[in-house]
């Protein structure tokens, strides 16, 4: 009998679950021998209130290890997360939605009422639709990361997270040792050439290819930030590296920041402005600065901005 394990997903897209499958052949002995999965909505039909709905309170089996994906966006998410925390000895937040809010937390940057109305209605197909008030969990005031609602024992970000790191976390728990995880930034794991401040002083939009010679190794390409592109490697946690280079960089594409901030309470927006300035790039040339927080808008990082006219009227 393996270690009792419960898996749950909140406001998620199933990308993290697919990342678990992408562990590959190494996943087979983990699932068949090491873990005893007692609850996993993505895999098994296990009802919260009994198989026939006879229960009156939510019930998730007790487990040694709990893995939660997705952010917290409505009252049902809170209830499920609190039950997981109650029943699991070790609770892991997997994926950037769970650790930092992820893409859904972009809604935190605008008025909640406007956001939900935009989701449930469109001007061309259903202009009279309203946000449901019955039979659908009520939305929270914003999108939260899991650790804003309950105590999280371990966080493993990524959109999606690196399958190799997921395997390392699971195996380390089984072996009773701390996991070996990256503790540096994407830049620290990037092999591109750095030559100091580039000649570019304004941020270039990534609508043209980076400068490199086709077929040359990544180590021969100049740093994309020094080329003037908005590469968020300096302010993003490492962990996506495959085949010796960060995933985006290996495709000659600037890092988009999907692993969240390097520092636990880091602000990718503020830190990125400093990174641009240190590379001689005018941060005022960034068209939409708040989009830098596209993966880390929870923890109060993204908030609605009142329109100037509203401020003048007040």
TrEMBL record:
EC number(s) per entry: 1.12.99.-
Domain NADH:ubiquinone oxidoreductase-like 20kDa subunit: 13-173
Cited SUPFAM superfamilies: HydA/Nqo6-like
Record-given protein name: F420-non-reducing hydrogenase small subunit
Main location: periplasm
Pfam families: Oxidored_q6 (PF01058)
Lineage: Bacteria, Pseudomonadati, Thermodesulfobacteriota, Desulfobulbia, Desulfobulbales
Protein location: Periplasm
Gene3D superfamilies according to UniProt: NADH:ubiquinone oxidoreductase-like, 20kDa subunit (3.40.50.700)
GO CC annotation terms, alphabetical: periplasmic space
Highest taxon, organism lineage: Bacteria
Organism: Desulfoprunum benzoelyticum
Keyword list, A-Z: Oxidoreductase, Periplasm
GO MF annotations in UniProt: iron-sulfur cluster binding; oxidoreductase activity
InterPro entries to which the protein is assigned, alphabetical: Hydrogenase_assoc-protein, NADH_UbQ_OxRdtase-like_20kDa, NiFe_Hase_small_N_sf
């Amino acid at each position: 009998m393996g270690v009792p394990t419960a898996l749950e997903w909140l406001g998620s897209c199933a990308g993290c679950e697919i990342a678990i499958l992408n562990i590959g052949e190494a996943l087979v002995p983990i699932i068949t021998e090491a873990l005893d999965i007692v609850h996993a909505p993505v895999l098994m039909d296990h009802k919260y209130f009994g198989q026939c709905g006879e229960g009156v309170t939510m019930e998730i089996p007790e487990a040694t290890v709990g893995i939660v994906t997705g952010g917290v966006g409505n009252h049902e998410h809170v209830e499920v997360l609190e039950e997981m925390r109650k029943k699991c000895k070790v609770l892991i937040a997997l994926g950037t939605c769970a650790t930092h809010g992820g893409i859904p937390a972009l809604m935190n940057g605008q008025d909640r009422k406007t956001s939900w109305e935009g989701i449930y209605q469109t001007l061309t197909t259903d202009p009279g639709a309203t946000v449901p008030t019955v039979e659908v969990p009520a939305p929270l005031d914003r999108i939260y990361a899991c650790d804003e609602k309950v105590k999280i024992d371990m966080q493993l970000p990524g959109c999606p997270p690196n399958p190799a790191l997921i395997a390392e976390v699971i195996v380390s728990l089984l072996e009773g040792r701390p996991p070996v995880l990256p503790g540096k930034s994407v830049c620290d794991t990037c092999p591109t050439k750095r030559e100091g401040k580039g000649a570019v002083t304004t941020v270039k939009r990534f609508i043209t290819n980076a400068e490199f010679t086709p077929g040359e190794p990544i180590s021969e390409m100049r740093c994309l930030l020094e080329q003037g592109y908005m590469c968020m490697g300096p302010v993003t946690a490492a962990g996506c590296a495959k085949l010796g280079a960060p995933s985006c960089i290996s495709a000659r594409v600037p890092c988009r920041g999907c692993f969240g901030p390097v520092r636990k309470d880091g602000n990718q927006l503020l830190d990125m402005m400093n990174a641009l300035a240190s590379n001689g790039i005018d941060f005022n040339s960034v068209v939409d600065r708040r989009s830098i927080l596209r993966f880390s808008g929870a923890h109060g990082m993204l908030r609605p901005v009142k329109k100037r006219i509203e401020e003048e009227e007040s």
